[in-house]
Amino acid sequence: MSEELLYEGKAKKVFTTDDGSVLLHRYKDDATAYNAKKRGSWEGKGRTNATMSAAVFAYLESQGVPTHFVEQVDDVSIKTKRLEMLPVEVVVRNVAAGSLSRLLGFEEGRKLKSPIVELCYKDDDLDDPLLNWYHFRELGVADEDLAFCEELGLKVNAVLAPYFDEKGVTLVDFKIEVGRDESGQLMLADEISPDTCRFWDKETGEKLDKDRFRRDMGGVEEAYAEMLKRVTD
Ligand SMILES: Nc1ncnc2c1ncn2[C@@H]1O[C@H](COP(=O)(O)OP(=O)(O)OP(=O)(O)O)[C@@H](O)[C@H]1O
Ligand SMILES: [Mg+2]
C-alpha cells in the first residue's frame, strides 16, 4: 500500500492511498485549542472523532448533502475523496457562545432568532479571522464559492440540528470546511466531531464538546465518550 503522509494537522494525519483520488484520515487522541497555544490528549478522542464524522457524513449524504466521505476503515480512520480545499471555515450558530458572544455582547446560551453563518479565513498565522465577501474577493475566493459555503452551512444545520435534537443534544454551533473534487464539484470536507461543534445536553445544558478542554472543566474524556454513544446507539 502506498501510504504517504501528506499532511500532519493538529488533530489528525492525512495520508495518500493507492487510489490517487482517495485520502486516509487517521484521527489522533491529541487536542489543541486557542490556535495550538493549549495542548492536551485523552483516550478515545480519535475514535470518537473518526466514528462520529463517518456516521454524520453518511447521514448527511442520505439527506442529499454532498460530502467527501468514502468509508470508515477502522476505529480511528476514514477514507475520503481527495479535494482542493477552500481557505474558508464556515461557522453556523443557533445559540450564542464563544466568539459570537464577544462580538455581539450576547450572554452565552442566548438563542438566536435565526441561524447565523460566518465565513472565516483558514489561516493560523492570522488566527482564522472572520472576514466579509470583499476580503475574500481580495484573497481570490470566488463569490459563487462563498455562496456555496453559506448555502451548504445552512443545509447542514437544517439536517443536523434535528438529528442531534433527537439524541438529546442541542447543536449550539459548528465549523465545517469545503473542498473541490477533480470534476470541479464543491462538497463538505474535513470532520464533524466534538472538536468542531458545540454540543449541549438538551435537558441539563451540560457541555459535551471541546469547550470542556478549552475551559479546563474536567470530564472531557467522558463527554467525548457520551457523544459517541449518543450517535452510535
Ligand atoms: N477531503 C480532503 N482533501 C484534502 N484535504 C482535506 C480534506 N479534508 C480535510 N482536509 C484538510 O486536512 C487537514 C486536517 O488536519 P487537522 O484538522 O488535524 O489540522 P488543522 O486543520 O491544520 O488544524 P485545526 O483543525 O486544529 O485548526 C486540514 O488542513 C483540512 O483542511
Ligand atoms: Mg482541522
Automatic annotation (TrEMBL):
Its EC number is 6.3.2.6. InterPro entries: SAICAR_synt/ADE2_N, SAICAR_synt_PurC, SAICAR_synth, SAICAR_synthetase, SAICAR_synthetase_CS. GO terms for biological process: 'de novo' IMP biosynthetic process; cobalamin biosynthetic process. Residues 5-230 form the SAICAR synthetase/ADE2 N-terminal domain. Belongs to the SAICAR synthetase family. This is Phosphoribosylaminoimidazole-succinocarboxamide synthase. It comes from the Bacteria. It is an enzyme of class 6 (ligase). The keyword ATP-binding applies. Pathway: Purine metabolism; IMP biosynthesis via de novo pathway; 5-amino-1-(5-phospho-D-ribosyl)imidazole-4-carboxamide from 5-amino-1-(5-phospho-D-ribosyl)imidazole-4-carboxylate: step 1/2. It catalyses: 5-amino-1-(5-phospho-D-ribosyl)imidazole-4-carboxylate + L-aspartate + ATP = (2S)-2-[5-amino-1-(5-phospho-beta-D-ribosyl)imidazole-4-carboxamido]succinate + ADP + phosphate + 2 H(+). SUPFAM superfamilies: SAICAR synthase-like. Keywords: ATP-binding, Ligase, Nucleotide-binding, Purine biosynthesis. Signal peptide: none annotated. One of its GO terms (molecular function) is ATP binding. It comes from uncultured Rubrobacteraceae bacterium.
